[in-house]
Amino acid sequence: MKTVFVLNGPNLNLLGTREPAVYGAHTLADVEALCADTCQKLGLKLEFRQSNHEGTLVDWLHEAGRLHASGELLGVVFNAGAYTHTSVALHDATKGTGITLIELHISNVHAREAFRHHSYLAPAARGVICGLGVAGYPLAIEALTRI
Ligand code: CA2
Fold first, then answer.
1. Binding site membership of 12 for ligand 1 (Cβ less than 6 Å)
2. Among residues 26, 68, 91, 105, which one is catalytic?
3. Full residue range of the structural domain in which residue 102 is found
4. Looking at residues 20-38, what average pLDDT do you find?
């Protein structure tokens, strides 16, 4: 059974508590349940995590990279939050590990402020899903099984 990492970056622990017009009413626990259900149906093992710390996210990408090297990883779904728009370190970690990574955003970042239009992660990602709300998470997991 292959493993899927679903990683969430800064402030995503606040999901469902504020800004429902942008991010919807679902909590991160709801998103985890959605991912768990999808992985169970697809016969995948889920590692679902959230951190507000860039270095921790880098460490988790390295961990995913080790599983990739041993053939145990299907891929990574990564909502890097605001680090998407700032982090060369997350770009380098993704490139350096050779993992298959889907960049995910709940909101349509291209319909928002200009500073959200650039992603350091996207050039290292296999694909990008944004603007579909939390429904993007199960879609991204399913996409990993198809590519
Ligand atoms: O749309 C997304 O998923 C984002 O990755 C969310 C990030 C944002 O910086 C990106 O540009 C787009 C922010 C996550 C913060 O989430 C909150 C949720 C509820 C209340 C406050 C923040």
1. yes
2. 105
3. 3-44+54-113+125-146
4. 95
Q: Which atom of ligand 1 is nearest to the CA of 12?
A: 16
The sign of the dihedral angle between the CA atoms of 96, 86, 74, 5 is positive
Q: 19 CA distance to ligand 1 centroid (A)?
A: 9
Output phi, psi for 129, to 5 deg: -120, 130
**Count of structural domains within the chain:** 1
Closest to 95 (Cα-Cα) out of 128, 60, 122, 71:
122
CATH number of residue 104's parent domain? 3.40.50.9100
pLDDT digits (tens, 9 = 90+) for 54-100: 999 999 999 999 999 999 999 999 999 999 999 999 999 999 999 99
- 105 has catalytic annotation: yes
